[in-house]
Amino acid sequence: MDVKQASLSLDSIVSSFNARIAELQDLVVARNMYPASSVTDLSAVDATLKALELQLQQIKDRLREETLAIPKAKKLIQASLQQQKKLQNMSAYVPSYLPQPEREEVAECSVIDEPSRQDHSFGIHAHKEEPLPLPKEKKGRGSPPVWYITADELDSLSSYMRGRLTLDKINAAINDMAAYAEANSQLMTAPRKKLTESTLEKALEIRDIGATEGVKGKHFFLETDVKGPTLKLDNTGKAIFTVLRHLGRLSESRIKNHRVFVLSRPH
């Protein structure tokens, strides 16, 4: 019995050695089949890991820059909000509709251009200097003032005086008045040789009115200048004149059979 057990134990040990030897042989065969590719694969893995580490470092640097920029962005947002609030307060005093002023009467009139003269002696042409658009010299007058009314001023009026007038309509009429005054100012300062026969008479009349007491040095227009596009001599226009006189934007006088309106600074 002991001999049989000893033989079985020896057989099992031999079988185990044989199985281990077979595994070692398989491993040696596998290593010899791909001797170079294993090294290449490990190199590729190492390069990939280095690339990932570089990208990770770049991400960290970017995050650090963004973190440092957050306080500056907060200050910029705060300044933008303050500027927005200022613009909103300013927009409350500006009408939503601002019509373009009409072309000045002087610009609509044709300008007399002297033809260039030629001296034909000796075949030499002596040209007069060509007329060039020169800046007009302003004699004590700047651009006409444009003092819009505010919503509070409109609300302060009685319902009878205000009627159906709106803030936009009144401020658009103020634009028209400034355009009338600008046209008269250009007539007053235009050189005589630049005026045509159709505008010379009115220019002389405007200059006489502008030299009178209470009008001298101020911007003004005549009742005959009122031709739109917003302000007209109708019931709405009369109501606008009444409101602007009441609010101190306008003063009225009669000079040489003309109804003269002078632009005034609000009280």
Explain this structure to me?
With 267 residues, the protein is mainly alpha-helical. 56% of the residues lie in helices and 6% in strands. A three-stranded antiparallel β-sheet has the order 1-3-2. The radius of gyration is 47 Å and the shape is rod-shaped. The relative contact order is 0.09.
Layout of secondary structure:
Elements: H1 2-33, H2 37-91, H3 105-108, H4 151-156, H5 159-162, H6 167-189, H7 197-210, E1 220-222, H8 235-246, E2 250-255, E3 258-263
Antiparallel strand pairs: 1-3, 2-3
Quick overview of this protein structure:
The protein has 8 helices and 3 strands.
Helix and strand composition category: mainly alpha
Average predicted local confidence, pLDDT: 77
How many β-strand stretches? 3
Which percent band covers the strand fraction? 5-15%
Shape: rod-shaped
- Percentage of helical residues? 55-70%
Question: In order across it, which strands form the biggest sheet?
Answer: 1-3-2
Radius of gyration: 47 Å
Number of helices: 8
Which runs of at least 5 residues are low in confidence (pLDDT < 50)? 104-140
Summarize the helix and strand pattern as letters: HHHHHHHEHEE
Distance between the termini: 135 Å
- Tell me the major beta sheet: 3 strands, antiparallel
